[in-house]
Automatic annotation (TrEMBL):
Alphabetically ordered keywords of this record: Membrane, Transmembrane, Transmembrane helix
Major subcellular site: membrane
Name of the protein: Disulfide bond formation protein B
Gene Ontology CC terms: membrane
Gene Ontology MF annotations: protein-disulfide reductase activity
Membrane topology category: Multi-pass membrane protein
Keyword Flavoprotein recorded: no
Pfam families hit by this protein: DsbB (PF02600)
């Protein structure tokens, strides 16, 4: 779980800092389940028995949350619904001087949440969609490991 979480965060950091893609508000929210999963995985690796198994069980709702956040983001990208985050909405400019408008601008440019980021040109799956697919795969692996441990009698 720790490796899966750190891999997702590492790819997100590479895309942001290495490729220069600006993340939107939903992209930043999608990183939280991976942080939680990495911490749970670390504690599970350091634990034994029931405690480790309990931490594995906690990975399931974390990955369900990751899948849910990805589904919300893909829906926003596809135009199925508006983003639930206010920072994804278009900015509202209030009257005032040019200097006041410049002072009100954010320090970092934001990216609208409905503008998908495609990493592979020929693959029509956005990064948010890939995040959801990866979360579903990690969820399946965690569930498989828990079921396998139950069948073999290990607790």
């Amino acid at each position: 779980m720790m490796v899966a979480g750190l891999a997702a965060l590492g790819i997100a950091a590479w895309v942001e800092h290495g490729l220069g893609e600006v993340p939107c508000g939903l992209c930043l929210w999608e990183r939280w389940p991976w942080r939680v999963l990495a911490v749970l995985g670390l504690f599970a690796a350091l634990s034994r028995g029931r405690v480790a198994r309990g931490l594995l069980w906690l990975g399931i709702p974390v990955m369900l949350a990751a899948c849910g956040l990805s589904a919300v983001h893909v829906g926003v990208e596809q135009g199925w619904w508006p983003s639930p985050l206010p920072e994804c909405q278009a900015p509202v400019f209030h009257p005032g001087t040019f200097a006041e408008r410049l002072a009100a601008m954010p320090l970092r440019p934001s990216k609208p949440c409905d503008a998908p980021t495609y990493l592979v040109g020929a693959l029509p799956v956005s990064m948010a969609g890939m995040d959801g697919l990866y979360a579903a795969c990690v969820l399946a692996v965690i569930a498989y490991c828990l079921a396998r441990g139950r069948r073999s009698g290990r607790r």
